[in-house]
Every structure is written in structure tokens, then in C-alpha cells.
Input
Amino acid sequence: MRSDDEIGEVRRLRGQLGALDADIQTARRDLERATTAHFEEYFQGAPLRRPPDHVDGEPMRLRDGATVMVRPVEPADSSLLEEGFHDLSAVTRYRRFLFDRPDLTGEEARELTQLDHRDHEAIIAIDPKTGDGVGIARYVRDDADRACAVAGITVIDRWQGRGLGTELLGRLAARARDAGIERFEAHMIAGDAEAQRMFEHLGPVETSQRSRGTLDVTVRLAR
Output
């Protein structure tokens, strides 16, 4: 007879497998749409992508040489959040939210852009070539413990593995320290080594089991 931990691990793996299957189906549909759009625009003589005239923010150079523009999230960014969410694979959504969340509503996106920049802060990275949001780091202060905040990072799949999440988290931590926050907490899937390494760049990490298959991670923000 399987233990509760084994049952929890099976459920976690099934969830990730389901998310991966959803990604495969989405990729097939996207490939078909992209191929059709490419040939339509090519034969009409239109450019496939028109760069934006201007993208606000501070330039940040990544380790692979790419540059993104970084700034605090503004109320007008709700559409960027919606579009960016749709660019996330099901696996990335699963790892970020601990379940496969299929959609982000317009109302939710608007709520996520209404920040006071002290108790609730978020920093967005924008691709200057396209104007698309490609990553975001956010913290929300704990009402019961004002020295602590729950933090999270989301990077769209094609920008992962380039150091963007680590850089965003570092900038978020600096703003949190200025607001009097001393610790970040994060919730993640057990075994998500990449997410844990991002927090390890801030300092020594303490982990504890949150529930079957998930961890609570705490890191003290060095001054």
C-alpha cells in the first residue's frame, strides 16, 4: 500500500505530465497558425514584425548579450500581463502557480497592476524589439509579519535559461530592502532546482515541506 508521500508524488507527476501534454497540443496549433500567418504576410509584402517606436525602462543586459528594458509595473501594463500569460507554456504555469492555470482574466491582470510599490511591488522586463513583456518579479508583504514578503518570478519560456529571472529577483530584492522587508518567502514544486537557485543568489536558503510535493523557501535579504 502506498504512503501519503508516494501518492502525493504520483499526483504531482501526473499534473506535470498533463501540463506537458497541453504544451504539445498548444505547440502544434501555434505552429499551424504561425506558418499560415508567415506565408500570408510574406506574399502580401508586409513585414512580419514591426518594432515599437519606444519602450520605457532601464536597459538591462543579460549574460547571453540580449538586452531588455526593466521598470516597475504600471496600471497600463495589464494588457502586457495578459499577453505574457498566454505565452507561458502549461509546464511553466504549473511550476509558477503549483497547478495548471489555463487563463488570466482581464480583471485579474488589472488587479495585478494596481500597486503601491511598497507593500506590493512588481518589476517587468520588456523586449525592446517587440514591446512584449518577457518576465516579471513580484512581492507582496505579509500583513502579519511586516518584515516578510512572498515573492515570485515568471519568465516566458523562450527567455528562460538566460539569467533574466535571477536579475529581476535581485532588483526586486533591492526595492524590498528599501521598503523595510528583511525576508522573502516563496512556494515552489519540490525538485524545481532552477527556481531555488534564483533565490540562492540572494543569500542562504532555508526550505521546509509545504505540502506533498511542494516546498516553502525562505531567504534573508542581505543589506
Notes: Confidence is low (pLDDT under 50) at residues 31-49. The beta strands are 58-61, 67-72, 120-126, 133-141, 148-155, 183-189, 205-211, 214-220. The first strand starts at residue 58 and ends at 61. The radius of gyration is 19 Å.
